[in-house]
Automatic annotation (TrEMBL):
Residues 5-226 form the ABC transporter domain. InterPro entries: AAA+_ATPase, ABC_SmlMolc_Importer, ABC_transporter-like_ATP-bd, ABC_transporter-like_CS, P-loop_NTPase. It comes from the Bacteria. The lineage of its organism: Bacteria, Pseudomonadati, Pseudomonadota, Alphaproteobacteria, Rhodobacterales. SUPFAM superfamilies: P-loop containing nucleoside triphosphate hydrolases (SSF52540). This is NitT/TauT family transport system ATP-binding protein. Keywords: ATP-binding, Nucleotide-binding, Transport. PANTHER family: SPERMIDINE/PUTRESCINE IMPORT ATP-BINDING PROTEIN POTA, SPERMIDINE_PUTRESCINE IMPORT ATP-BINDING PROTEIN POTA. It comes from Rhodovulum steppense. The keyword Lipid metabolism does not apply. The keyword Amino-acid biosynthesis does not apply. One of its GO terms (molecular function) is ATP binding.
Length: 226
């Protein structure tokens, strides 16, 4: 099976202070992996390395994807562009005409639950949750085959989160999208991921399939009390 993302023996230091040491992680194509671990263990640093925004001091980061989508906790939208303009901007460089870019951007905003009324608003006129939805639409508009999400849904309420997850599951089923998402929410991880990657400070401590975790838990619950 191909691996759209693989990190081998990655070391990384922020300002000379080691943060990741000999970190290994691989994502099989079409899987959804939840990256979990204590605050400060290096999850966001791993995502930045995976995205190519940071360069490892040692080891190797290999991305085998045609198009990468990234969503951060901070949506970082262009303040001088509308929601539609922000999503359309991401489509420049794909060789599409202006009308096609606008149509794709509109459709993607619609898919994340932002209709024509919201599409024309500037980031300052949108709530934090709406800005996060614009950021997701921007990442998905390029039709990525690898999506990295760093606490991307943290400002969203439960019903909106559920709708966006439904959209991601549909995209995965249709396109084989591979997703790595950082979350502190165990329920979100168990409900939406196929695999868990659990970090200890600086490294991946364990990767396991969610099904294996659930059956281990169930057999422990059903074990006779001695
Ligand atoms: N730009 C930076 N400059 C210096 N140190 C940094 C920088 N970014 C992160 N660090 C440090 O690197 C370590 C790992 O940070 P990182 O943000 O990757 O952890 P995290 O697991 O994502 O944390 P959280 O769950 O709190 O978001 C922390 O000690 C943090 O203080």
């Amino acid at each position: 099976m191909t691996e759209p993302l693989r990190l081998d023996g990655v070391d990384f230091a922020h300002d000379g202070r080691p943060v990741l040491r000999g970190l290994d992680l691989s994502l099989p194509a079409g899987t959804i992996t939840a990256l979990m671990g204590p605050s400060g263990c290096g999850k966001s640093t791993l995502i930045a390395l995976a995205a190519g925004l940071l360069t490892p001091d040692a080891g190797r980061v290999a991305r085998r994807c045609a198009r990468l989508g990234i969503v951060f906790q901070d949506p970082a939208l262009l303040p001088w562009k509308t929601a539609l303009g922000n999503v359309g901007f991401a489509l420049r460089g794909l060789g599409l005409g202006r009308a096609e870019r606008r149509a794709r951007a509109r459709a993607m905003l619609d898919a994340v639950g932002l209709g024509p009324g919201d599409a024309g608003k500037y980031p300052r006129q949108l709530s934090g949750g709406m800005r996060q939805r614009v950021a997701l639409a921007r990442a998905l508009a390029v039709a990525p085959d690898l999506l990295l999400c760093d606490e991307a849904f943290s400002a969203l309420d439960a019903p909106v989160r559920a709708k966006l997850w439904q959209l991601l599951h549909e995209l995965r089923a249709r396109t084989g999208l591979t997703i790595l998402f950082v979350t502190h929410d165990q329920d979100e991880a168990m409900e939406h991921a196929d695999r868990l990657a659990i970090m200890a400070p600086g490294r991946i401590e364990q990767t396991a399939s969610v099904d294996a975790c659930i059956s281990a838990f169930t057999s422990r619950m059903n074990a006779p009390v001695s």
